[in-house]
Amino acid sequence: MTPPLLSLHGIGKTFGSVTVLRDVAFTARAGRVMALVGENGAGKSTLMKVVSGIHPPDPGGEIRLRGEVVRFTTPRQAMDAGIAIIHQELNLLPSLSVAENIFLGREPRTAIGRIDWSAMKVRAADLLARLRQGHVAPGTPVEHLGVGTQQMVEIARALSLEAEVIVMDEPTDALTDVETRILFDVVDTLKAEGKAIIYISHRLNEIFALCDDVTVLRDGRMVHAGPVADLTEADLIRHMVGREISDQYPYVQSDAKPVMLEVSQLSARGVEDVTFTARAGEVVGFAGLMGAGRTELGRALYGANRLSGGTVRVDGAAIRLRSPCDGQRAGIAYVTEDRKADGLIQSHSIRFNMALGALGRLSTGPVVNRRRETTSVAEYMTMFSVKARDMEAAVSTLSGGNQQKVSLAKSLLTRPRIVILDEPTRGVDVGARRDIYTLINALKRQGLCVLLMSSDMPELLGLSDRILVLSRGRLTGSFDRGEATQERIMERAVA
Amino acid sequence: MPKTKPPATTMAATATEIGPPSTGGAGRVLLRMLADNKSLIGLIVLMAVVAAYSPNFLTVDNLLNILRQTSINAIIAMGMTFVILTAGIDLSVGSVLAFTGAVCASLVAADASLWVALPATLMLGAALGAANGVVVAIGGVQPFIATLVSMTVLRGATLVFTDGRPITTLSDPFWAIGGAYIQGIPVPVVIAAVAFGICWFVLGQMRFGRYVYAIGGNEQVTRLAGINVTAVKIAVFAVSGLMAALAGIILTARLESAQPTAGMAYELDAIAAVVLGGTSLMGGRGLIFGTLVGALIIGVLNNALNLMDVSSYYQMIAKGAVILLAVLVDSRGKSRA
């Protein structure tokens, strides 16, 4: 085995009175991919922030890079020492070009100090070619690229830094299957070049497919470290949650109920001529590749995107959908895939966010009824087991899974009858996922109509009563629970 | 003091960040206000310094004088707070003040009943503000530009309406709005206090107030939560216009005339008061109480520089320096938090 490139010993981190990390140790070796796994809030992100110099570790902890003890006080120092992080939320400047993003702050200069654009483009093209992204022109503005390609730009930036340790935080969350495969190839290439990769993911199958070693964190402690080959998937889950998860997708059978939602010939931006119906107490899954129009369909059904044609009926009555107000009035709720931009006001409290859409119900006349608000919010926090200091904690302080729970609770507080869930488990760990699945089943049992849009195929197959497939804005397939398979869906999704 | 139950305490703790505290004992609330509101500490320090230098400062007459002089700016600044909380800005308040003041004066001069003249003026102010709101929320124009335009247009309209001359009002009941006392307290101060109470209630306790904070926090999220953002934005500018009109009435009554150049640069003092009070120009964060403190800081500063016989030329420089200092201290505190 190669010598350790980066090793941590006795790392602890406390914020005020809250201990986030306790005595964590791990070793990343050159030419190996180490998975870092754990539930949301287990401390993975904090640990990576310690490694990258954003947070200094508590005294007593030690970070060694190539055997030397290092102490980073700024992210720049970590970067210069050869540690690069590719964050879950990409840190690219959308209007700048690929090359400008790769060399941001380190642009190649000509002899007289001007930016050497041609050298920059050539070097960017080299890096992209190494990542098998030769088709991307270095001059393209990043905002014109898909999320997957943007991720490659981030990796190219890490390579341009000559980074030897590359941390990838949930890199495949926003990627399509094809993009994921390319990413895996790239990771293999980096591995062959002798880089040490730290790979953070919730997707267990990826860990088994890609990683050599695994370190498991639970509640801020390291609970397991060793080669992936020594573990089964069940072992790994047990280490992560500290308990067995027997049935990953708890499907419940429900009786046929009347049709609640009828959509006919609906057209909107990215959606063409979509017709379907959904029943009360039914989970209708929507499959499709990235950009197939799932999000656009969800937003249109809620009134967030303008309809250009077609009708939507709820309980037989046509509804007007010109703004989210109309959607809400018709009893429709939409839980966005993009929590940060569309879902929650990050700077405001859990209470403020959860109650926001439901204030009409939580008020006496125009005056907010604080007691009713507190009771409702507390009830939903318990029901969803939101982990937070209290309901006044700012949403930005919560982990991804907990934010998602707040986002779901916010929509359900409006007492909708039709719930549109857009990627409800993106960036959410195994334990919280399970909570969300249970919740979906509970909604179903209460007779709500659930539209589930997800890129996670096993999840769709596991929970849906029926799966509709979208491709380039059109419905291309419909499968009942019994007849849906990954292959059949994929075949329609690429149609 | 009875012990408050834990949820109530935590509620008040962060309520100070987004809405006023609604629970907890008075002493506790005061302590928290001091802790969360550096501008209040600033005001107290400023008053202590001035009192040490000038024996005439801490007299009842002078303090009432400060309050009266502050009331107009405080009222405008409270309206401005609504707009700034939604991440907007209203530059037209000074011109709205002048125009509504002139209309009010002409109504009073024409012997219209105050029961007609005052509501009509207030409604005019709200309508002018709402027009700003329509241009911003429906027209999609930046608030800075939209209100810059209405600032110019309304100043011109005021000059046209008054023919460039003051409109004098000789009506004792009208004068009382600006010059009389209730129980020894100047009427404008009473009006400002009532306006403060209403604004505090609207922002802290009403659904509308939540929406104001929400829009400033993240407009997109607010829209997707099914809230009519357009209507709230229009209403917010209407509030600002209404408050400017209220200030216009008080100023006109006090001077017993409407000056076509009244309210010039008042928007700057109002914005300064809001910012001194700790409200973020990015929206979403701030308290109406802070704005009141901010207005008082400016009022005390003006008064102190007068008492110390500082030339009015230097006064402007000193005022600017103090505002910069206060905002710097505040932003340093925030970035560390």
Automatic annotation (TrEMBL), chain A:
SMART domains in the record: AAA (SM00382)
Question: Which keywords accompany this UniProt record?
Answer: ATP-binding, Cell membrane, Membrane, Nucleotide-binding, Repeat, Sugar transport, Translocase, Transport
Q: Name one Pfam family in it.
A: ABC_tran
* This protein's record includes keyword Secreted: no
Residues in ABC transporter domain copies = 6-244, 256-495
Keyword Cell membrane recorded: yes
InterPro entries attached here? AAA+_ATPase, ABC_carbohydrate_import_ATPase, ABC_transporter-like_ATP-bd, ABC_transporter-like_CS, P-loop_NTPase
Q: Where this protein primarily resides, as one coarse class?
A: membrane
Q: Where does this polypeptide localize?
A: Cell membrane
Give the GO molecular function terms: ATP binding; ATP hydrolysis activity
Listed Gene3D superfamilies: P-loop containing nucleotide triphosphate hydrolases (3.40.50.300)
The record ties this protein, via SUPFAM superfamilies, to:
P-loop containing nucleoside triphosphate hydrolases
Membrane association type: Peripheral membrane protein
The cellular component terms of Gene Ontology attached to this UniProt record, alphabetical and capped at eight, are: plasma membrane
Matching entries from PANTHER family are given as: CARBOHYDRATE TRANSPORT ATP-BINDING PROTEIN MG119-RELATED, D-ALLOSE IMPORT ATP-BINDING PROTEIN ALSA-RELATED
Protein name, per record: Ribose transport system ATP-binding protein
From TrEMBL, chain B:
Instruction: Identify a single GO molecular function assigned to this protein.
Output: transmembrane transporter activity
Keyword Transmembrane listed: yes
UniProt-annotated location(s) = Cell membrane
* Cellular component per GO, a single term: plasma membrane
Bilayer-crossing residues are: 40-58, 70-89, 130-154, 174-203, 224-251, 263-282, 287-305, 311-329
Q: InterPro entries from the entry?
A: ABC_transp_permease
Q: Which Pfam families match?
A: BPD_transp_2 (PF02653)
Q: What is this protein called?
A: Ribose transport system permease protein
Q: Which organism is it from?
A: Roseospira visakhapatnamensis
